[in-house]
Write a structure and sequence with these properties.
single chain; alpha+beta; 4 strands; globular
């Protein structure tokens, strides 16, 4: 059985460490989003981030090949799997992911496991916002689920909980 209090505490500490490492490593790049991403069984958590410079490069590259519709531009901007600053801090996340994965692979997880994983991820980002408010004032924080029909709702709820009004209104205007 998972100790969710310990997972939440460890995840919060890991997210702050990964964010600090990322902020120190990106130089002059302008960070615009940080996402904690899981899958539909909550078996692991990944830290993903996006910068304006990487988005502009990706947007320009894609625009050469395809028509850049507003919907496709929003997809590139707000879909963590499309970002180049992905999967940061795996070494920090191992302590959290090991028990999450063990419960899923061991067949002892339940629908409540997924809900608790989403809750722990949201709490970790809330701690990051509180601890690094000055450094992340213009950075949208959110939680997502890869390849899930529930992703849009989870993302929008977390955006509303974790961000100031200006960032909430700038988040993806329509579902993808």
């Amino acid at each position: 059985m998972i100790d969710w209090k310990a997972i939440t505490k460890d995840l919060g500490e890991a997210v702050i460490a990964v964010a600090d490492d990322l902020l120190a490593s990106i130089g002059r790049h302008r960070l615009y989003a940080i996402c904690l991403l899981t899958d539909d069984d909550g078996g692991s958590v990944g830290f993903w981030a996006a910068t304006e410079e990487d988005f502009e490069r990706r947007r320009a590259s894609e625009a050469e090949a395809d028509e850049m519709t507003p919907a496709y531009e929003a997809y590139l901007r707000w879909t963590p799997e499309e970002w180049s600053e992905d999967a940061h801090g795996d070494v920090f996340m191992r302590r959290i992911n090991k028990p999450l994965f063990a419960e899923v692979i061991g067949g002892t997880s339940s629908p409540a496991h997924f809900d608790r994983t989403i809750e722990a991820m949201t709490d970790a980002l809330a701690l990051l916002r509180a601890e690094r408010a000055d450094k992340l004032a213009d950075v949208t924080l959110f939680v997502s689920v890869s390849d899930s029909e529930d992703a849009d709702g989870i993302e929008r709820r977390s955006v509303a909980l974790l961000n100031p009004p200006a960032l909430i209104s700038a988040f993806r205007p329509e579902p993808l």
